[in-house]
Each structure stands twice: as structure tokens, then as C-alpha cells.
UniProtKB/TrEMBL annotation:
<comment type="function">
    <text>May play a role in DNA repair. It seems to be involved in an RecBC-independent recombinational process of DNA repair. It may act with RecF and RecO.</text>
</comment>
<dbReference type="GO" id="GO:0008270">
    <property type="term" value="F:zinc ion binding"/>
</dbReference>
<dbReference type="GO" id="GO:0006281">
    <property type="term" value="P:DNA repair"/>
</dbReference>
<keyword id="KW-0479">Metal-binding</keyword>
<keyword id="KW-0234">DNA repair</keyword>
<dbReference type="InterPro" id="IPR023627">
    <property type="entry name" value="Rcmb_RecR"/>
</dbReference>
<dbReference type="Pfam" id="PF13662">
    <property type="entry name" value="Toprim_4"/>
</dbReference>
<keyword id="KW-0863">Zinc-finger</keyword>
<dbReference type="InterPro" id="IPR034137">
    <property type="entry name" value="TOPRIM_RecR"/>
</dbReference>
<feature type="domain" description="Toprim">
    <location>
        <begin position="79"/>
        <end position="174"/>
    </location>
</feature>
<dbReference type="GO" id="GO:0006310">
    <property type="term" value="P:DNA recombination"/>
</dbReference>
<dbReference type="Pfam" id="PF21176">
    <property type="entry name" value="RecR_HhH"/>
</dbReference>
<protein>
    <recommendedName>
        <fullName>Recombination protein RecR</fullName>
    </recommendedName>
</protein>
<dbReference type="Pfam" id="PF21175">
    <property type="entry name" value="RecR_C"/>
</dbReference>
<feature type="zinc finger region" description="C4-type">
    <location>
        <begin position="56"/>
        <end position="71"/>
    </location>
</feature>
<dbReference type="InterPro" id="IPR006171">
    <property type="entry name" value="TOPRIM_dom"/>
</dbReference>
<comment type="similarity">
    <text>Belongs to the RecR family.</text>
</comment>
Length: 197
């Protein structure tokens, strides 16, 4: 029952993260047998997204236009700039609803071992932006990994002459986390970053 066109579809579906041969086959069969119109909509949505979604020229997050909705929103604060590694991080912070400033997406983190240096990220552009605008606080929201920390330290050194306040996201116990299951490095950070209640 496997035709060349079916096999091609199964192969293409495997480009998605976490989708192997079996899941791809299940998806293809599901679309073909029960959801053909939706499958056509899916194909059209994929084509539109792949062709039309680009990088925001101001923050490097994803955008349908030259400037993304967050950069274009006049109700957001220009005085706080949150630096993240990827557009996925922007989405995560936006979903928290805790931040109303602007973002800047680096496009990754420093990782000399993988050949990713400052020139490969948008760090020069970030520093130029800090020089030319009145930003009160730079929030470094890179990952809590060795590379994320290294990237944050590198940027804080370069940014210090141009911005008064540079902060880093707090690290510690996750919500709902029991202390006995938290690793000692996280617990160490949580104790160092403890706050008044
Ligand atoms: Zn933007």
C-alpha cells in the first residue's frame, strides 16, 4: 500500500522534531484517510509561513512584516530591553505575562567549542542599539547553561558603558518543586539569590 508519493510524505514529516518513521506514517495515514481538507490547509499554512515569515529588523524575532508586533506596540516600555537566545524564549516570556518591555534575540549563545563566536550572534548590533537609545535596564535572559552564562557575562562587559542597570534572570527552585529533588547547584544558586518575602 506504500506508494512513492506516500513514502515521500512520510519522509518529509520526519523533519519535525520527535517524529520518527512510525509517527510520520501514522500522521500521513490520518490525514489521507480522515482529514484531507485539513491536510490541504496544513500544507498551505506551511507554505505561507515558510515563505512569508521573516526576522524582525529591530529585535530578530519572527515577524510577518519588517517590524514585529512587539517592537511596533507603542504601549510597551522602551526603557527595558530583555536579551534572549531565541524567538522561542520571547514566546515563553510573553506567555508568562510578566514583562512589558522590548526584546532582543541574539540568535543563539556563545559556544567556542561549536565555533559560535560573538560575530555569529547579533551582539554588535545590540551594543549599537544600547549606545543610541535610552535604555534604563538591560535584562540578560540567556539560558541557565554554561554557554548561556558565558554569553550573559560577555554582553554585560560590552554593555556596561552604555546602560546603568544590567540584570540577570533569577535562578533557583522551580514552582511546585520539592527541595529534596532539586540538584545541589540549583539549590546553591537559590540560596545565593534568596529574596525578601
Ligand atoms: Zn521585533
Amino acid at each position: 500500500m506504500l506508494t512513492p508519493k506516500f513514502e515521500h510524505l512520510v519522509k518529509q514529516l520526519q523533519v519535525l522534531p520527535g517524529v520518527g518513521q512510525k509517527s510520520a506514517q501514522r500522521m500521513a495515514l490520518h490525514l489521507l484517510s480522515k482529514k484531507r481538507p485539513q491536510g490541504v490547509s496544513l500544507a498551505q499554512a506551511l507554505e505561507t509561513a515558510m515563505c512569508d515569515i521573516k526576522e524582525c529588523s529591530r529585535c530578530h524575532s519572527f515577524s510577518d512584516d519588517d517590524i514585529c508586533p512587539i517592537c511596533a506596540d507603542v504601549r510597551r516600555s522602551d526603557s527595558e530591553l530583555c536579551v534572549v537566545e531565541s524567538a522561542a524564549d520571547v514566546m515563553a516570556i510573553e506567555q508568562s505575562g510578566a514583562f512589558r518591555g522590548r526584546y532582543f534575540v541574539l540568535g543563539g549563545h556563545l559556544s567556542p567549542i561549536d565555533g559560535i563566536n560573538a560575530d555569529d550572534l547579533h551582539i554588535d548590533e545590540l551594543i549599537i542599539r544600547l549606545k543610541n537609545s535610552a535604555i534604563d535596564e538591560l535584562i540578560l535572559a540567556t539560558g541557565a547553561t554554561v554557554e548561556g552564562q558565558t554569553t550573559a557575562f560577555f554582553i554585560s562587559d560590552a554593555a556596561r558603558p552604555f546602560v546603568g542597570k544590567i540584570t540577570r534572570l533569577a535562578q533557583g527552585i522551580p514552582m511546585g518543586g520539592e527541595l529534596e529533588f532539586v540538584d545541589s547547584l540549583t539549590l546553591h544558586q537559590a540560596l545565593q539569590n534568596r529574596a525578601f518575602i
